[in-house]
Automatic annotation (TrEMBL):
This is RNA-directed DNA polymerase. Residues 58-115 form the Integrase zinc-binding domain. It comes from Trichonephila clavipes (Golden silk orbweaver). Residues 179-214 have a biased composition (Basic and acidic residues). It is an enzyme of class 2 (transferase). Pfam families: Integrase_H2C2 (PF17921). GO terms for molecular function: RNA-directed DNA polymerase activity. Residues 170-214 are annotated as: Disordered.
């Protein structure tokens, strides 16, 4: 006998013997709940967007396999509960599907190790005071090193100057930090920037990126 036929017959038997599907079989025979039967297989009728589809009803013994296929397989990319649920519903269904998908995604080890922490605290957010005039507050930041370096292995940075309350941004080239190159201090670059945008009452910057040279 063909292996595919054997698998199909086995799945049909699993649907018939699953205790959780007993009521669903009854609904299918009575034409209720959008359930119906085709060649001995149990389906559910649904509409996603404007497309009518038939969802194969999955017995309990196969549900973990479907969840793994939709979430942890090579082609699934460990999507979140919402997208994993959408992927499954295009082909399969069972009662409690949404809760099972949420529980499975939340217990996925890879997702727990790699997901970003979006809420670190629940303190109130203080609104940032915006300057009344352009160039009143000037922000400066150092971007680099630029990759790849030059053909002579020179390392380059970009000194970015922008203003709050305006759309003006001015990138300025900055030499690298090699020992045999000229050392530019922050005040030298700031002076160059002030010639471009004017002298701000307040200058702000990222201390971590600016503190390369003293």
């Amino acid at each position: 006998m063909d292996k595919g036929i054997m698998v199909a017959d086995s799945f049909r038997s699993e649907q018939e013997c699953c205790a959780e599907l007993a009521l669903v079989w009854k609904y299918a025979k009575e034409g209720k709940g959008n359930y119906y039967e085709v060649d001995g297989y149990l389906f559910r009728r649904d509409k996603i967007l404007v497309e009518s589809i038939g969802q194969l009803v999955i017995p309990k013994c196969r549900r973990t396999e479907v969840l793994k296929l939709a979430h942890t397989s090579v082609f699934s990319s460990h999507m979140g509960p919402k997208k994993t649920l959408e992927r499954i519903k295009y082909s399969f269904f069972w009662e409690g599907l949404r809760a099972d998908v949420k529980k499975f995604c939340e217990s996925c080890k890879e997702c727990q190790l790699t997901r970003s922490v979006r809420i670190k605290d629940r303190s109130l957010i203080t609104p940032m005071a915006r300057p009344e005039l352009p160039f009143e507050v000037v922000n400066m930041d150092l971007i680099g090193p630029i990759d790849p370096p030059s053909s002579k292995e020179h390392i380059f940075y970009v000194w970015l100057i922008s203003t709050l309350g305006g759309a003006c941004k001015e990138p300025l080239p900055a030499p690298g930090n090699r020992s045999n190159e000229r050392r530019y201090r922050e005040k030298d670059l700031a002076t160059t920037g002030e010639k471009k945008v004017g002298t701000g009452e307040k200058r702000e910057g990222d201390e971590k990126s600016r503190g390369r040279e003293k």
